[in-house]
Amino acid sequence: MAGRQRVVHLLQQLEHAACRCPAHSNTFHQGGGAASCTVRKTEYAFEMASSNIRYGGGVSQEIGMDLQNLGARNVCVMTDQNLSRLPPVKIVLESLLKNGVKFKVYDNVRVEPTDTSFKDAISFAKKHSFDVFVAVGGGSVIDTCKAANLYASHPDADFLDFVNAPIGKGKPVTGTLKPLIAVPTTAGTGSETTGVAIFDYEPLKAKTGIASRAIRPTLGIVDPMHTLSMPPRVAANSGFDVLCHGMSYPIAGNVKTHSAKGYSVEHPLVPHGLSVVLTSPAVFNFTAPMCPERHLEAAEILGADIRQVKRADAGAVLSDTLRQFLFELQVEDGLAAVGYSNEDIPALVKGTIPQERVTKLSPRSHSEDDLAELFEASMKLY
User: Fold this and answer.
1) What are 77-96's pLDDT values in tens digits?
2) Is 232-377 CATH 3.30.70.1030?
3) Whose CA is closest to 110, among 125, 121, 102, 100?
């Protein structure tokens, strides 16, 4: 893992980085402004909409009281088989028992869920008439619990009704869902705050999801102590989730034989954070011409000396900085190291095309040929 000094440096750089939000990037704010990008000017508007969050060491012990306050009589606790033996789940269940809350545990959540695993959790939820849902785990657990709550509350809906277009029908959620309390054990997806549930759609070997405010957790209980119980690779991969979102989906969805380090699962797995980070050097080299200044700032945050770097070299500098960062974290050496070859590129491109919800956020437009070149450039990192 990265050394303590490297981590401290990263945090210090983030603390002093220029704010790019619409308010603080205006030239009248504090007598300065953000460095201007060269193309694709965009009008911005934003809305803050998220779950209530309780943060603090040990706050998971309070969940029994929260459920009492909700008047919960039959609670569904969802987790996965690995977590079911670890402290986060034990702490939550002890709190429920202490406060006399009746519950049933579903611990068959699949790490990197699929439509099949979603349907299994949905079936469990439909059988028991739960009045509150509790998810204890990472993004896979929380997203699965969201889906179970959604479809248990809409028992007549077809599975694809609420799945994002073009794979699903993208219908609006009209019914009322049960309260859902999310207790995250990783720090990457932010699923405890969002109305999004992501899964692998097996017929197309591509990731898609459900997006609706209706499935957003009622409360996120963020207990930093849970990070201590996570294997190092799990903790690292969950953090990579912040880097860059759409090309990762087919990488995870088309996995063949790769077994990720630190994950005790019986099926092949490329964790979402790992699938994200493997293409990041190529992706940022591709997007850099649209706003070199921001790419250089990112490189500086990651430890690069950019004082003599030309704007034209921003992409190369950020890419090289990322590669060094990933090398120090002992990340697999590109797509080839997780089982892919150039022969797989057409399938990877095909799996990326439906991900417009995230790929359209790229500051640079791209064609299928561009995507193919990015996947090819990501086959080997070091």
Assistant:
1) 999 998 999 999 999 999 99
2) no
3) 121
